[in-house]
Amino acid sequence: MIQKERIRALNKKGANGGGYVLYWMQASQRTEYNHALEYAIATANTLSKPVIVYFGITDNFPEANERHYRFMLEGLKEVGDSLESKGISFVVRHESPEVGVLKLSEESAVLVVDRGYLDIQKKWRDYVARRCNRPVIQVESDAIVPVEEASPKEEYSAATFRPKLKRKLADYLVTITGQEPHLNSLKLDFESLDIKSTEAVVNHLNIDRSVKPVTAYRGGISQAKKQLEEFINSKLDKYPELRNDPNVDCLSHMSPYIHFGQISPLYIALTVLGTGNPAADKYLDELVIRRELSLNFVHYNQDYNKINGLPTWARKTLAERAKDTRTYLYNREELEAAKTNDPYWNAAQKEMVSTGKMHGYMRMYWGKKIIEWSRSPEEAFTTAIYLNNKYELDGRDPNGFAGVAWCFGKHDRPWAGRRVFGNIRYMSAEGLRRKFDVEAYARRMSS
Questions:
Q1: Does domain 143-175+221-300 have CATH number 1.10.3720.10?
Q2: Which of 15, 46, 305, 316 reaches 20 to 30 Å from 66, CA-CA?
Q3: pTM value?
Protein backbone atom coordinates (compact mmCIF):
# COMPACT_ATOMS: atom_id res chain seq x y z
CA MET A 1 0.00 0.00 0.00
CA ILE A 2 1.33 3.44 -0.96
CA GLN A 3 -0.49 6.20 0.89
CA LYS A 4 -1.53 9.13 -1.29
CA GLU A 5 0.28 11.52 1.07
CA ARG A 6 3.59 10.01 -0.05
CA ILE A 7 2.92 10.91 -3.69
CA ARG A 8 3.42 14.39 -5.11
CA ALA A 9 3.47 15.64 -8.69
CA LEU A 10 6.47 17.95 -9.13
CA ASN A 11 5.23 19.37 -12.43
CA LYS A 12 2.01 19.53 -14.44
CA LYS A 13 3.11 17.74 -17.59
CA GLY A 14 0.90 15.04 -19.09
CA ALA A 15 2.02 11.60 -20.23
CA ASN A 16 3.06 11.69 -23.86
CA GLY A 17 4.10 8.39 -25.35
CA GLY A 18 7.48 7.08 -24.29
CA GLY A 19 8.83 3.57 -24.23
CA TYR A 20 9.28 2.99 -20.49
CA VAL A 21 8.62 4.24 -16.98
CA LEU A 22 11.79 5.68 -15.51
CA TYR A 23 12.57 5.58 -11.79
CA TRP A 24 15.36 7.93 -10.76
CA MET A 25 16.76 6.22 -7.69
CA GLN A 26 18.87 8.57 -5.58
CA ALA A 27 17.93 8.69 -1.90
CA SER A 28 16.27 5.27 -1.53
CA GLN A 29 19.09 3.00 -2.71
CA ARG A 30 17.28 -0.33 -2.28
CA THR A 31 14.73 -2.61 -3.91
CA GLU A 32 12.92 -3.69 -0.74
CA TYR A 33 10.37 -1.50 1.04
CA ASN A 34 10.89 1.21 -1.56
CA HIS A 35 7.62 3.04 -2.19
CA ALA A 36 9.05 4.91 -5.18
CA LEU A 37 10.14 1.71 -6.93
CA GLU A 38 6.81 0.04 -6.20
CA TYR A 39 4.96 3.07 -7.59
CA ALA A 40 7.10 2.96 -10.74
CA ILE A 41 6.43 -0.76 -11.25
CA ALA A 42 2.69 -0.32 -10.69
CA THR A 43 2.59 2.60 -13.14
CA ALA A 44 4.55 0.64 -15.74
CA ASN A 45 2.25 -2.36 -15.38
CA THR A 46 -0.82 -0.14 -15.83
CA LEU A 47 0.70 1.43 -18.97
CA SER A 48 2.01 -1.93 -20.24
CA LYS A 49 5.55 -0.60 -20.35
CA PRO A 50 8.85 -1.81 -18.89
CA VAL A 51 10.61 -0.14 -15.95
CA ILE A 52 14.09 1.38 -16.05
CA VAL A 53 15.95 2.42 -12.89
CA TYR A 54 18.58 5.15 -13.18
CA PHE A 55 21.30 6.19 -10.74
CA GLY A 56 23.77 9.02 -11.35
CA ILE A 57 27.16 9.09 -9.60
CA THR A 58 28.57 12.58 -9.34
CA ASP A 59 32.17 13.23 -8.29
CA ASN A 60 31.08 16.39 -6.53
CA PHE A 61 28.52 15.52 -3.90
CA PRO A 62 29.21 18.10 -1.15
CA GLU A 63 31.65 16.86 1.51
CA ALA A 64 31.60 13.25 0.26
CA ASN A 65 34.88 11.33 0.02
CA GLU A 66 36.18 7.86 -0.77
CA ARG A 67 34.86 6.45 2.52
CA HIS A 68 31.30 7.43 1.60
CA TYR A 69 31.52 6.46 -2.08
CA ARG A 70 32.80 2.97 -1.36
CA PHE A 71 30.07 2.25 1.18
CA MET A 72 27.45 3.53 -1.27
CA LEU A 73 28.81 1.48 -4.16
CA GLU A 74 28.84 -1.69 -2.07
CA GLY A 75 25.12 -1.15 -1.61
CA LEU A 76 24.49 -0.27 -5.25
CA LYS A 77 26.06 -3.53 -6.38
CA GLU A 78 23.39 -5.40 -4.43
CA VAL A 79 20.71 -3.12 -5.88
CA GLY A 80 21.88 -4.02 -9.37
CA ASP A 81 21.78 -7.74 -8.65
CA SER A 82 18.30 -7.48 -7.14
CA LEU A 83 16.90 -5.45 -10.03
CA GLU A 84 18.36 -7.89 -12.53
CA SER A 85 16.58 -10.75 -10.76
CA LYS A 86 13.33 -8.82 -11.24
CA GLY A 87 13.98 -8.24 -14.94
CA ILE A 88 14.60 -4.51 -14.46
CA SER A 89 17.45 -2.70 -16.21
CA PHE A 90 19.68 -0.67 -13.85
CA VAL A 91 21.34 2.22 -15.66
CA VAL A 92 24.24 3.68 -13.68
CA ARG A 93 26.17 6.58 -15.15
CA HIS A 94 29.12 8.65 -14.04
CA GLU A 95 27.43 12.02 -14.33
CA SER A 96 25.57 14.56 -12.27
CA PRO A 97 22.21 12.86 -11.65
CA GLU A 98 19.93 15.76 -12.49
CA VAL A 99 21.60 16.07 -15.93
CA GLY A 100 21.67 12.36 -16.67
CA VAL A 101 18.07 11.68 -15.73
CA LEU A 102 16.83 14.42 -18.04
CA LYS A 103 18.49 12.67 -20.99
CA LEU A 104 16.90 9.33 -20.14
CA SER A 105 13.51 10.92 -19.46
CA GLU A 106 13.20 12.10 -23.08
CA GLU A 107 12.15 8.59 -24.13
CA SER A 108 10.10 7.82 -21.01
CA ALA A 109 6.38 8.00 -20.37
CA VAL A 110 6.63 8.99 -16.69
CA LEU A 111 9.53 9.89 -14.41
CA VAL A 112 9.30 8.71 -10.79
CA VAL A 113 11.75 9.98 -8.17
CA ASP A 114 12.28 9.31 -4.48
CA ARG A 115 12.60 12.15 -1.96
CA GLY A 116 15.57 13.82 -0.28
CA TYR A 117 15.62 16.63 2.27
CA LEU A 118 19.02 18.28 1.91
CA ASP A 119 19.43 21.44 -0.18
CA ILE A 120 21.25 19.67 -3.01
CA GLN A 121 18.62 16.94 -3.20
CA LYS A 122 15.82 19.51 -3.40
CA LYS A 123 17.71 21.51 -6.05
CA TRP A 124 18.26 18.43 -8.20
CA ARG A 125 14.57 17.53 -8.17
CA ASP A 126 13.47 21.11 -8.78
CA TYR A 127 15.91 21.39 -11.72
CA VAL A 128 14.50 18.22 -13.30
CA ALA A 129 10.85 19.05 -12.63
CA ARG A 130 11.19 22.43 -14.36
CA ARG A 131 12.92 21.01 -17.45
CA CYS A 132 11.40 17.57 -17.91
CA ASN A 133 8.71 17.19 -20.59
CA ARG A 134 7.20 14.19 -18.84
CA PRO A 135 5.22 13.95 -15.59
CA VAL A 136 7.63 13.96 -12.62
CA ILE A 137 6.17 12.14 -9.62
CA GLN A 138 7.95 12.20 -6.26
CA VAL A 139 7.26 9.31 -3.89
CA GLU A 140 8.47 9.63 -0.32
CA SER A 141 10.00 6.43 1.03
CA ASP A 142 12.63 7.34 3.64
CA ALA A 143 10.23 8.79 6.21
CA ILE A 144 7.75 6.59 8.02
CA VAL A 145 5.30 9.49 8.23
CA PRO A 146 5.64 11.95 5.31
CA VAL A 147 7.27 15.09 6.63
CA GLU A 148 4.40 17.51 5.96
CA GLU A 149 1.90 15.02 7.39
CA ALA A 150 3.90 14.74 10.60
CA SER A 151 3.84 18.53 11.09
CA PRO A 152 3.17 21.57 8.89
CA LYS A 153 5.95 23.59 10.56
CA GLU A 154 9.36 23.38 12.21
CA GLU A 155 8.98 21.83 15.65
CA TYR A 156 10.55 23.23 18.80
CA SER A 157 11.50 19.90 20.37
CA ALA A 158 10.78 16.19 20.57
CA ALA A 159 8.19 17.00 23.24
CA THR A 160 6.12 19.09 20.82
CA PHE A 161 6.71 16.74 17.87
CA ARG A 162 6.08 13.37 19.53
CA PRO A 163 2.29 13.65 20.05
CA LYS A 164 1.74 14.90 16.50
CA LEU A 165 3.72 12.05 14.99
CA LYS A 166 2.15 9.40 17.20
CA ARG A 167 -1.34 10.41 16.06
CA LYS A 168 -0.32 9.53 12.49
CA LEU A 169 1.93 6.51 13.03
CA ALA A 170 -0.65 3.74 12.84
CA ASP A 171 -1.73 4.92 9.37
CA TYR A 172 1.82 4.54 8.02
CA LEU A 173 3.22 1.52 9.84
CA VAL A 174 2.01 -0.62 6.96
CA THR A 175 3.88 -3.43 5.24
CA ILE A 176 4.73 -3.22 1.54
CA THR A 177 4.20 -6.17 -0.76
CA GLY A 178 6.76 -6.13 -3.55
CA GLN A 179 5.40 -6.25 -7.10
CA GLU A 180 6.88 -7.81 -10.21
CA PRO A 181 7.03 -5.91 -13.50
CA HIS A 182 4.94 -7.43 -16.30
CA LEU A 183 7.58 -6.58 -18.90
CA ASN A 184 11.30 -7.33 -18.81
CA SER A 185 13.62 -4.40 -19.58
CA LEU A 186 16.99 -6.17 -19.41
CA LYS A 187 17.34 -6.41 -23.20
CA LEU A 188 16.86 -2.68 -23.75
CA ASP A 189 20.12 -1.14 -24.85
CA PHE A 190 21.44 1.53 -22.46
CA GLU A 191 24.98 2.67 -21.83
CA SER A 192 25.74 1.95 -18.17
CA LEU A 193 28.70 1.87 -15.80
CA ASP A 194 29.68 -1.65 -14.74
CA ILE A 195 29.47 -1.59 -10.92
CA LYS A 196 30.16 -5.26 -10.23
CA SER A 197 33.68 -4.35 -9.08
CA THR A 198 33.42 -1.71 -6.34
CA GLU A 199 37.20 -1.25 -6.38
CA ALA A 200 37.26 -0.54 -10.12
CA VAL A 201 34.45 2.03 -9.91
CA VAL A 202 35.99 3.83 -6.93
CA ASN A 203 39.32 4.03 -8.77
CA HIS A 204 37.53 5.44 -11.82
CA LEU A 205 35.96 8.32 -9.92
CA ASN A 206 37.57 11.74 -9.53
CA ILE A 207 36.77 12.16 -5.84
CA ASP A 208 38.29 13.32 -2.56
CA ARG A 209 40.54 10.48 -1.38
CA SER A 210 41.70 12.08 1.86
CA VAL A 211 39.53 9.78 4.01
CA LYS A 212 39.99 6.09 3.43
CA PRO A 213 37.27 3.42 3.59
CA VAL A 214 36.66 1.55 6.83
CA THR A 215 36.60 -2.17 7.55
CA ALA A 216 34.19 -1.96 10.48
CA TYR A 217 31.13 -1.52 8.24
CA ARG A 218 30.30 -2.79 4.77
CA GLY A 219 27.51 -1.34 2.68
CA GLY A 220 24.43 -3.08 1.35
CA ILE A 221 21.04 -4.46 2.34
CA SER A 222 22.45 -7.88 3.26
CA GLN A 223 24.85 -6.32 5.77
CA ALA A 224 22.11 -4.04 7.11
CA LYS A 225 19.79 -7.00 7.71
CA LYS A 226 22.59 -8.95 9.35
CA GLN A 227 23.24 -6.07 11.76
CA LEU A 228 19.53 -5.71 12.47
CA GLU A 229 19.10 -9.42 13.19
CA GLU A 230 22.07 -9.36 15.56
CA PHE A 231 20.63 -6.31 17.33
CA ILE A 232 17.23 -7.91 17.81
CA ASN A 233 18.60 -11.26 18.96
CA SER A 234 21.43 -10.08 21.20
CA LYS A 235 21.04 -6.41 22.12
CA LEU A 236 17.45 -5.17 22.06
CA ASP A 237 16.65 -6.49 25.56
CA LYS A 238 19.48 -4.40 27.01
CA TYR A 239 19.01 -1.34 24.82
CA PRO A 240 17.02 0.85 27.27
CA GLU A 241 19.55 0.32 30.04
CA LEU A 242 22.87 0.18 28.19
CA ARG A 243 22.42 2.21 24.98
CA ASN A 244 24.50 5.10 26.39
CA ASP A 245 27.49 2.95 27.36
CA PRO A 246 30.05 2.82 24.51
CA ASN A 247 31.85 -0.07 26.23
CA VAL A 248 28.83 -2.33 25.73
CA ASP A 249 27.74 -2.61 22.11
CA CYS A 250 23.97 -2.35 22.43
CA LEU A 251 23.33 -0.25 19.32
CA SER A 252 21.70 -1.35 16.08
CA HIS A 253 24.28 0.39 13.81
CA MET A 254 21.52 1.15 11.33
CA SER A 255 22.39 4.82 10.77
CA PRO A 256 24.92 4.38 7.90
CA TYR A 257 22.50 2.08 6.08
CA ILE A 258 19.55 4.41 6.63
CA HIS A 259 21.63 7.37 5.46
CA PHE A 260 22.33 5.76 2.09
CA GLY A 261 18.79 4.44 1.79
CA GLN A 262 20.06 0.86 1.85
CA ILE A 263 17.43 -0.22 4.36
CA SER A 264 13.98 1.21 5.01
CA PRO A 265 13.21 2.81 8.39
CA LEU A 266 9.70 1.43 7.96
CA TYR A 267 11.05 -2.10 7.56
CA ILE A 268 13.23 -1.68 10.66
CA ALA A 269 10.32 -0.34 12.72
CA LEU A 270 7.96 -3.13 11.68
CA THR A 271 10.61 -5.79 12.29
CA VAL A 272 11.43 -4.49 15.77
CA LEU A 273 7.74 -4.07 16.63
CA GLY A 274 7.14 -7.61 15.46
CA THR A 275 9.36 -8.97 18.21
CA GLY A 276 6.87 -7.92 20.89
CA ASN A 277 9.85 -6.98 23.04
CA PRO A 278 9.00 -4.26 25.64
CA ALA A 279 12.39 -2.66 24.90
CA ALA A 280 11.19 -1.86 21.37
CA ASP A 281 9.50 1.37 22.53
CA LYS A 282 12.77 2.97 23.57
CA TYR A 283 14.50 2.01 20.35
CA LEU A 284 11.60 3.21 18.22
CA ASP A 285 11.62 6.55 19.99
CA GLU A 286 15.12 7.05 18.58
CA LEU A 287 14.43 5.54 15.15
CA VAL A 288 11.08 7.21 14.55
CA ILE A 289 10.60 10.27 16.78
CA ARG A 290 14.17 11.57 16.91
CA ARG A 291 15.03 10.74 13.32
CA GLU A 292 11.86 12.22 11.87
CA LEU A 293 12.33 15.30 14.05
CA SER A 294 15.63 15.76 12.21
CA LEU A 295 13.79 15.50 8.86
CA ASN A 296 11.40 18.15 10.13
CA PHE A 297 14.35 20.41 11.04
CA VAL A 298 16.17 20.05 7.72
CA HIS A 299 13.01 20.38 5.65
CA TYR A 300 11.64 23.51 7.29
CA ASN A 301 14.85 25.31 8.33
CA GLN A 302 16.85 26.66 5.39
CA ASP A 303 19.83 27.28 7.70
CA TYR A 304 19.99 23.72 9.05
CA ASN A 305 23.75 23.56 8.38
CA LYS A 306 24.56 27.02 9.77
CA ILE A 307 24.55 28.58 13.21
CA ASN A 308 21.73 30.87 12.07
CA GLY A 309 19.48 27.82 12.10
CA LEU A 310 19.60 27.69 15.91
CA PRO A 311 16.76 29.02 18.06
CA THR A 312 16.92 32.73 18.89
CA TRP A 313 17.60 32.08 22.58
CA ALA A 314 20.56 29.81 21.75
CA ARG A 315 22.16 32.28 19.34
CA LYS A 316 21.64 35.08 21.84
CA THR A 317 23.20 33.29 24.81
CA LEU A 318 26.18 32.06 22.75
CA ALA A 319 26.77 35.58 21.41
CA GLU A 320 26.65 37.02 24.93
CA ARG A 321 29.35 34.56 26.04
CA ALA A 322 31.45 34.71 22.87
CA LYS A 323 34.17 36.80 24.53
CA ASP A 324 34.50 34.60 27.62
CA THR A 325 38.02 33.34 28.22
CA ARG A 326 38.58 29.76 27.05
CA THR A 327 40.86 27.61 29.20
CA TYR A 328 42.02 25.78 26.07
CA LEU A 329 41.86 26.72 22.40
CA TYR A 330 42.36 24.25 19.56
CA ASN A 331 42.32 24.86 15.84
CA ARG A 332 40.62 22.54 13.37
CA GLU A 333 43.81 20.65 12.54
CA GLU A 334 44.51 19.89 16.20
CA LEU A 335 40.97 18.67 16.73
CA GLU A 336 41.04 16.56 13.59
CA ALA A 337 44.25 14.90 14.81
CA ALA A 338 42.74 14.31 18.30
CA LYS A 339 45.45 16.43 19.94
CA THR A 340 43.63 17.90 22.93
CA ASN A 341 44.14 17.69 26.67
CA ASP A 342 41.01 15.55 27.03
CA PRO A 343 41.66 11.79 26.56
CA TYR A 344 37.93 11.05 26.39
CA TRP A 345 37.32 13.51 23.57
CA ASN A 346 40.43 12.27 21.77
CA ALA A 347 39.09 8.73 22.03
CA ALA A 348 35.76 9.75 20.48
CA GLN A 349 37.50 11.55 17.61
CA LYS A 350 39.73 8.52 17.00
CA GLU A 351 36.72 6.22 16.99
CA MET A 352 35.05 8.34 14.31
CA VAL A 353 38.16 8.62 12.14
CA SER A 354 39.03 4.92 12.33
CA THR A 355 35.60 3.28 12.19
CA GLY A 356 33.38 5.84 10.44
CA LYS A 357 30.96 5.93 13.36
CA MET A 358 31.08 7.47 16.82
CA HIS A 359 28.94 6.22 19.69
CA GLY A 360 25.90 8.49 20.02
CA TYR A 361 26.45 9.47 23.63
CA MET A 362 30.07 10.36 22.98
CA ARG A 363 29.05 12.40 19.93
CA MET A 364 27.05 14.69 22.21
CA TYR A 365 30.04 15.20 24.50
CA TRP A 366 32.31 15.61 21.45
CA GLY A 367 30.17 18.45 20.08
CA LYS A 368 29.90 20.22 23.44
CA LYS A 369 33.67 20.30 23.94
CA ILE A 370 34.20 21.84 20.49
CA ILE A 371 32.10 24.80 21.70
CA GLU A 372 34.32 25.11 24.76
CA TRP A 373 37.59 25.00 22.78
CA SER A 374 36.78 27.25 19.82
CA ARG A 375 37.41 30.97 19.45
CA SER A 376 33.78 31.69 18.66
CA PRO A 377 30.43 29.87 18.48
CA GLU A 378 30.49 30.27 14.69
CA GLU A 379 33.91 28.60 14.43
CA ALA A 380 32.75 25.80 16.72
CA PHE A 381 29.64 25.12 14.65
CA THR A 382 31.44 25.00 11.30
CA THR A 383 34.18 22.78 12.78
CA ALA A 384 31.68 20.30 14.21
CA ILE A 385 29.79 20.09 10.89
CA TYR A 386 33.06 19.71 8.98
CA LEU A 387 34.43 16.87 11.12
CA ASN A 388 31.11 15.06 11.39
CA ASN A 389 30.48 15.17 7.65
CA LYS A 390 34.03 14.24 6.72
CA TYR A 391 34.46 11.12 8.83
CA GLU A 392 31.02 9.77 9.75
CA LEU A 393 29.49 7.28 7.33
CA ASP A 394 26.16 8.84 8.29
CA GLY A 395 27.47 12.40 7.94
CA ARG A 396 25.81 14.86 5.55
CA ASP A 397 22.50 13.57 6.87
CA PRO A 398 19.48 15.22 8.55
CA ASN A 399 20.29 13.28 11.72
CA GLY A 400 23.87 14.57 11.66
CA PHE A 401 22.86 18.19 11.11
CA ALA A 402 20.23 17.97 13.85
CA GLY A 403 22.71 16.24 16.17
CA VAL A 404 25.30 18.99 15.80
CA ALA A 405 22.63 21.67 16.18
CA TRP A 406 21.40 19.94 19.38
CA CYS A 407 24.85 20.45 20.94
CA PHE A 408 24.28 24.18 20.38
CA GLY A 409 20.74 24.25 21.84
CA LYS A 410 18.45 23.07 19.02
CA HIS A 411 15.55 20.87 20.21
CA ASP A 412 16.63 21.63 23.80
CA ARG A 413 15.75 24.18 26.46
CA PRO A 414 17.78 26.86 28.28
CA TRP A 415 19.80 25.63 31.26
CA ALA A 416 21.55 27.45 34.10
CA GLY A 417 24.09 29.96 32.77
CA ARG A 418 27.81 29.27 32.76
CA ARG A 419 31.01 30.51 31.15
CA VAL A 420 31.30 30.12 27.34
CA PHE A 421 28.06 28.12 27.07
CA GLY A 422 25.66 30.64 28.53
CA ASN A 423 22.34 28.78 28.81
CA ILE A 424 23.33 25.94 26.46
CA ARG A 425 23.35 22.51 28.11
CA TYR A 426 26.84 21.57 29.34
CA MET A 427 28.43 18.12 29.50
CA SER A 428 31.48 17.32 31.60
CA ALA A 429 34.10 14.61 31.93
CA GLU A 430 32.77 13.98 35.44
CA GLY A 431 29.37 13.28 33.93
CA LEU A 432 30.90 10.68 31.64
CA ARG A 433 32.59 8.98 34.59
CA ARG A 434 29.28 8.76 36.43
CA LYS A 435 27.60 7.27 33.39
CA PHE A 436 30.04 4.50 32.44
CA ASP A 437 33.70 3.45 32.60
CA VAL A 438 35.02 6.15 30.31
CA GLU A 439 38.62 5.29 31.17
CA ALA A 440 38.11 1.85 29.63
CA TYR A 441 36.63 3.51 26.54
CA ALA A 442 39.64 5.82 26.21
CA ARG A 443 42.07 2.92 26.60
CA ARG A 444 40.28 0.89 23.96
CA MET A 445 40.27 3.72 21.41
CA SER A 446 43.94 4.47 22.01
CA SER A 447 45.15 0.89 21.69
A1: no
A2: 305
A3: 0.97
